[in-house]
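Per-residue structure
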Amino acid sequence: MLERAPRLSRPGTTPNWFASVMGSGIVATALPAPLSVLRPVVTVVWALAAVWLVVLVWQLVADRRRQHRHLRDPMLVHFWGAPPMALLTIGAGAVALGRDWIGTGPALVAGAVLWTAGTAMGLVTAVGVPYRMITGRIPAAEPFAGWLMPVVPPMVSAATGAALVPHLPAGQPRLALLLACYAMFGISLFATVVLLPQIWHRLVTAGTEAARVPTLWIVLGPLGQSITAANLLGAAAPGVLPFGAAAEAFGLFYGLAAWGFAMLWLAIAAAVTLRTVRAGMPFSLTWWSFTFPVGTCVTGTSALAAVTGSALFGGAAVALYVLLVGAWVTVVLRTGQTWGRR
C-alpha cells in the first residue's frame, strides 16, 4: 500500500506550488498539431492556470515574511526556479492561445510582460541559488534532480522568447532578443551538462528514496526544452542572424541527439517510478514533476516533427501528449484529494 499522503502547505506559501501552474500551462501550450481540434479546450486550461498563477502570487506575497526560511532549506530552495517558469509558461500561452480571447495586441503585451518578469527572476535564481550553495548559505546536501530547477528557467526563456522575435521591429531589436535567447540557451545547457553527471553518479551509487523518485522526471525538462528552444530559435534566425540556415541545421541535429537521450532518461525514470509505486510512493507536490518535463518533450518532439516532416515524430508527439494529459489528470486529482483531507 502507498504511504499516507503528507499534509500539503497552504497554496502559494512554498515555491514548489508554482509547479502546478507549469504543469497545467504546458498541457495547453504543448498541444501537438494533429490534435489542434482540442485548441478551445486547452485554451480553457490555460486560462484556469493563469487564474491559479494569480492566486499563488497573491499568497506568496502575503506570506513573504516566511519566504526567507525557504532560501535556507536544502530541498525547497531549488524550487524557487518554479515561479519564473510559471510566469513564462502562462506568458507563452497568452501569445499562442490567449489571442483567441483577448486579441493579438493585448495577448502580445501580456506575453511580453510575463516573459520579461519570468526571465529576470529566472536569471536571479540561476545565479543566486548556486551562489548560496557555493558560499555555504544552504546546508550541504546530496545531489538530486531538483538541483536543475533553478538553472532551467533561462532555457524556458529561450524557447518562449523565440515566439516574440518576429513581433519586434526588424534590425537591432530582433537581433538583440535572438542573441539573448541563444545566450540563455547556453546558460541552462551547460549548467545541465555540469549537474547531470553528479545526479547520475548519486543515483547509480546510492539510489534515491521513494519521496524523491518523481524528481527524476525533472531531468527531462532541460532536455526537452533545449530541443524546443534550438529549433524555434533556428526558425527565427534566417534574416536576423548571419548564417541563419546554419542555426536551423543546428536545431535539427542537436535536437535529434538530445531527443535520443531524453527518451533513454524517460524510459529509466518510468521504470523506477513504476517499481516505486508498487513498493509504496507517498504523494507530495513533487508529483507535479510528472507534468512539465514531459510537456517539454512534447514540444521538442513537435518541433522536430515540424522541421523534418517525419510521421514518426508526429506520432511520438501525440503519444507523449497522451502521457502528459494522463499524468496531469492524476496529479490534479491527487492534489485535490490530499488538500481536501487536510
Q: What stands out?
A: DSSP finds eleven helices and no strands in the chain. The radius of gyration is 19 Å.
